[in-house]
Amino acid sequence: MNFDFSFVAIQFLYGLTNAMFIFLIASGLSIIFGVLGVLNFAHGSLYMLGAYTTYQCVSFFVDSPGYFWWAVIVASVTVALLGGIIERLLLRRLYQHEQINQLLFTYALVLILSDVARFIWGVDQLSVSRPAVLKGAVEIFGQYFPKYNIFIIFLGPSIAFLFWFFMLRTRSGRMIRAAALDRETLGSLGVNVDRLFTVVFVIGSWLAALGGALVSPVVTIRPGMDVEIIINAFIVVVIGGLGSFWGTFLAALMVGTVYSMGILVFPRLSMIFIYVIMVLVLIIRPWGLLGRPLQR
């Protein structure tokens, strides 16, 4: 097969698009684990609900200017608030339990939320139209690439930078980092750690829901999409390092682009490349690329 640079370049850009979607979901998962110490298996369900709620909101705002963006805002905030309720009423009771109990509980949430989604929206495949301003494609190296994908490619690093600024340059961000290191000492200084945990879970839930809302014009919205994305998100978090935000970003870039380029070489085995990377990282650095060894 002749080497076609333009085709490879476009495939690489599709890989970057996929990487940014994975980053949005995995970053929320990483933040929740880094601060709360909870491996939230239901994180993918929040992503799925973000997509379904966006579909529902689009039908409500369809006659309004910029209806897609209103739907994204309302859907992501609504699911984020649902995440806060879950943390405050249910998950908070399990912080002192072993992680296997937390994992089983969040898996039970996956089953419950999946059935709720089926009850409300059924099992048909749904879709959302792309916003008018981002419809169509631009020509890159003689190939056409969707405008919406370009928007996503630039949005991912923008969100990463904003969260970096928030975590390092704001008082709230410093308290979140302090809670990740020593929650007992932070509590003794008069900080309401319980409220801080709820805020962190809401932020993580918002990232998952935002990913689901933004992916709704790209993929079909269907039952089971939560399980598919949570597997990729866990792989990214493991490769990048549990609780490492920039490690998650780097790992998402690796997973998204390697998977996309692997399709060009061995389409049926493309996912194997991702597992190979994860195994190699676990052998060389069991705590991930930018993570730290757990000390418990």
Query: How would you classify the helix and strand content by structural class?
Result: mainly alpha
SSE run: HHHHEEHHHHHHH
The major sheet is characterized as: 2 strands, antiparallel
Proportion of β residues? under 5%
Secondary structure tally: strands: 2
* Number of domain units: 1
Our count of helices gives 11
Write the layout of secondary structure elements.
Blueprint: H1 5-36, H2 43-61, H3 67-89, H4 99-121, E1 137-140, E2 143-146, H5 147-169, H6 171-181, H7 183-188, H8 193-215, H9 225-240, H10 245-265, H11 270-284
Antiparallel strand pairs: 1-2
Helix pairs in contact: 1-5, 1-8, 1-9, 1-10, 2-3, 2-4, 2-8, 2-9, 3-8, 5-6, 9-10, 9-11, 10-11
Q: TL;DR of this structure?
A:
This protein has 11 helices and 2 strands; from the N terminus they run ααααββααααααα. It is mostly helical.
